[in-house]
């Protein structure tokens, strides 16, 4: 396999979370960099409780196949997180050494330049999704120790003495009631159809589980696509943006290494140079 010049990793709670918040941006990178880009998508939970008819094992198997189908659209690798003891998170994501050691090993083995993950809310009045919140918290907790070769037992290979530290980027998260600020908005209009194709690979979620969880009747495919378009329109309005373009929104953390200007130019192909962008870039080297 050709050694990729850029490696990006998404670590989200469930198999379908990535597509909602970052798929358009990753598709833009694939279009620009081709085989010079390697993409790995990780879900931390089996997602096995995410269905109202299928049992947990069947749900996990179905969702794993849907995840692989979606990832294939942009030539990405997709896998469920393996914990320190070799198991998957059985249901809800909890912070313990087994989970953190799994994150640490997964990140160090791939050595991404960039990690995309959920944000952490500091507002105690907001509700949270336990899997999203603890996935983000776990990444934040292990970030510094990625440079510590013996922080956890290394699984599946020799101990790496030194790895490059990733830049860790937060996506926005619909589970938080109040929209936070953002550093970069990325115009994904040209890859929106790719994003739709990827997202609708998750049929069991889009057409079955999510409507059920909201107390709604099963939608038609057109109704589901219309709702997906409306979600992007509402997100633009929440951030004070026009609704004539499709966008994804991101914030840079200092959990791993600090960002530099080149990072924005590399990752966000169609970045919009609005007030938030200019203010943030002025702080970078």
What are the main properties of this structure?
285 residues; alpha/beta; 9 helices; 7 strands
Walkthrough of the structure:
The protein has 285 residues and is α/β, with parallel strands linked by helices. The protein has a single domain (6-281), classed as Rossmann fold (3-Layer(aba) Sandwich). Helix content is 40%, strand content 13%. The chain contains 9 helices and 7 strands. The protein has helices at 17-33, 56-73, 97-110, 130-143, 192-199, 203-213, 221-238, 261-267, 275-281, and strands at 6-12, 37-43, 77-80, 114-117, 167-171, 184-187, 247-252. A 7-stranded mixed beta sheet has the order 3-2-1-4-5-7-6, sandwiched between helices.
Q: Brief overview, please?
A:
By secondary structure, this protein is α/β, with parallel strands linked by helices. The chain contains nine helices and seven strands.
Write down how many β-strands occur, each being a DSSP E stretch of 2 or more residues. 7
CATH class: Alpha Beta
- Output the strand order for the largest sheet: 3-2-1-4-5-7-6
Task: Supply the helix-strand structural class.
Answer: alpha/beta
Annotated CATH homologous superfamily: LmbE-like
Shape: globular
Whole-number tally of structural domains: 1
- Poorly predicted ranges: none
The profile of the biggest β sheet is:
7 strands, mixed
**Proportion of strand residues:** 5-15%
Integer average pLDDT: 94
Q: How much is the radius of gyration in Å? A: 18 Å
Distance between the termini: 34 Å
């Amino acid at each position: 396999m050709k050694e990729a010049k850029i490696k990006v990793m998404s670590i989200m709670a469930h198999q379908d979370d990535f597509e909602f918040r970052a798929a358009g941006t990753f598709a833009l990178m694939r279009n620009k960099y081709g085989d010079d880009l390697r993409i790995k998508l990780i879900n931390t939970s089996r997602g096995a409780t995410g269905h109202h008819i299928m049992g947990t094992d069947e749900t996990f198997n179905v969702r794993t196949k849907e995840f692989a189908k979606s990832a294939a659209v942009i030539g990405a690798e997709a896998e469920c997180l393996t914990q320190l003891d070799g198991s998957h998170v059985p249901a809800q994501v909890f912070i313990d050494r087994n989970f953190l050691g799994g994150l640490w090993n997964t990140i160090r083995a791939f050595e991404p330049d960039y990690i995309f993950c959920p944000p952490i809310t500091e507002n105690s009045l907001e509700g949270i999704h336990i899997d999203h919140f603890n996935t983000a918290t776990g990444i934040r907790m292990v970030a510094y120790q990625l440079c510590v070769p013996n922080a956890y037992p290394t699984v599946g290979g020799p101990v790496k003495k030194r790895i490059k530290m990733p830049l860790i980027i937060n996506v926005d998260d619909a589970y938080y009631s109040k929209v936070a600020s953002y550093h970069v908005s990325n115009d994904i209009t040209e890859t929106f159809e790719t994003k739709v194709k990827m997202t609708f690979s998750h049929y069991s979620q889009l057409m079955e589980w999510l409507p059920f969880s909201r107390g709604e009747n099963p939608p038609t495919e057109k109704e589901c696509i219309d709702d997906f378009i409306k979600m992007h329109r509402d997100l633009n309005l929440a951030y004070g943006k026009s609704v004539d373009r499709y966008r994804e929104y991101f914030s840079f953390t200092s959990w791993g290494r600090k960002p530099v200007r080149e990072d924005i130019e590399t990752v966000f192909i169609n970045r919009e140079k609005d007030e938030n962008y200019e203010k943030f870039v002025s702080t970078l080297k």
